[in-house]
Amino acid sequence: MNKKLQRPVNFRESEEEGQELISIMALNNMDVSGFDADFLEKSTRKRVAAMHCESADEYLALLGQDNSEGSLLLESLHVSYSEFFRNPLTFAVLERIIFPAIFAQNQHLNRKEIRIWSAACAGGQEAYSVAILLEEMNKGRKEPMNYRIFATDKLSDQVDEARRGVFSQQALAKMTLMWAEQWFDKRGDVYVVKPDLKRRIDFSVFDLLDKESSCPSASIFGGFDIVFCSNVLFYYKPEVRSVMLEKVTSCLSKDGYIVVSEVERDLLNKSRFREVYPQSGIFRNIERV
Description:
three-stranded antiparallel β-sheet; 11 helices; 289 residues; 42% helix; seven-stranded mixed β-sheet; alpha/beta
C-alpha cells in the first residue's frame, strides 16, 4: 500500500505530524503553535483538499516547498466571520440590565463615559451593533449615556473593512428595517454605515497576543466597562486562552464585564468568571467584584 495513503491528517492521533506542520510554518516565520489542535487539523484538511493532496506527507512536502501555501493556510486560521446582533439574548441583557447599571454606576462615580472594547472585531458588525443599541437607548433620555467604542483586530485588512462599514443586505438580516434605514445609506446593492454611527468608534490594529501592549493605544489606559471577546478564544490552546483572558481582564474596570459567544461560555464558567445572567455570555471576574 502506498505509504502516503497511510497518513491522513490527524493531529489528535499523531502529535508528531502536528509538530512537523508547526515546524515547517515556523521556518517561514509563521507561528501556528498557539492554535487549538482540532481547529488546526480541520483547517489543514481543507487546504489538503483544496490542493488535491492525497495525504499529510504530500501536503507537508508542498508546504515546505511553497511559501505561498503557508500564507494561505495561515490566512485560513484567521476566522473573521461576524454578524450584527449575533446573540439576541446578549444584546437584550445589555439593553435592559447591563448598560443601565453601568450608566448609574458611572453617574455615582462621576465617570464621563461608558468605555467598550470590541476585541477581534472582524468586519465591525459587533461594534456597530453596540453603537446602534446605545444610540437607540439614548433616544428620549434627558441625560444621554456618553460612550466610546474601541474596535480592534490583528489584521489591518479587517480593520480597514470594518472602518469602511459597507455591508450586503443579507448582512443586515437580523436588524429591523427601521434601524437599517436610520443607520445605513443604501447605495446600489450595499448598505453603508452613516457617519453619525461611526463618530464614537475608534478602529485600530491590535493583537491580543502582543506581549508589548496591554490595550488599544487609542484607549490610553484601558479602564473598560465591557470587553467583547467573542468567537476568538475557542480557536486557541488553553494556555493561549489564559493569556488572552488575562490581558482583557487587566484592562477592565473593577466592576467591568467580559462578553463571549455561546460556544465559549463553558471556557469562562470553568475559570474565575461568573455569568451574570444565564445563557447570556456576559461574565464578571468574581475575584475583582
